[in-house]
Amino acid sequence: MKSKNNQDEEYNDDVHLHENQLSIFSRRIHLFGQPHFTTLSWSEYNLVRWYVLNNCEELKPYLSEHENELRKEDSFIQDVATKQKDQFPLWFEQRVRYSILNFICYLYF
After folding, report:
1. Tens digit of pLDDT for each residue in 21-37?
2. Could you tell me if 26 and 16 are in contact, meaning their C-beta atoms sit under 8 angstroms apart?
3. 59 and 46 Cβ atoms separated by less than 8 Å
4. DSSP helix/strand/coil, 51
5. Measured between alpha carbons, how far is 53 from 92 in angstroms, rounded to an integer?
6. Which residue in 53, 52, 85 sits closest to 70, CA to CA?
């Protein structure tokens, strides 16, 4: 009988990262039953996106950088977590684009 305890390849949840793969996407998933597809509302999508960004170990330095920027902008900020939840996804996207553009400029100019 196959089980997680038998360490069968199908049930092996060891993390095997490929180059440029984030750890949050490295686990295998095991589906049960028939697939069910649904469309997320915009607020549900934002919650899922924040969960992934906030729980990805490789993004911790970016989360800290963003938090520091928020505190520099407003040293009396009360609810950094809520502001970061609202602003980090777009900030991170822009940060990555800027880094890519800088890298391309470095390569070609």
Report:
1. 566 566 677 778 888 88
2. yes
3. no
4. helix
5. 9
6. 85
12 closest CA partner among 24, 36, 29, 31: 29
Answer for the pair 47, 38: CB distance below 8 angstroms, yes or no: no
Can you tell me the distance from the alpha carbon of 59 to that of 1, in angstroms, rounded to the nearest whole number? 39
The three-state DSSP-derived secondary structure of 36-75 is CCCCCCHHHHHHHHHHHHHCCHHHHHHHHHHHHHHHHHCC
- The rounded distance, in Å, linking the Cα atoms of 55 and 2 is 31
Would you say how long the chain is, in residues? 109
pTM for the model: 0.64
23 within 8 A of 57, measured Cβ to Cβ: yes
**Contact between residue 77 and residue 68 where contact means Cβ atoms under 8 Å apart:** no
Other Cβ atoms closer than 10 A to 84: 20
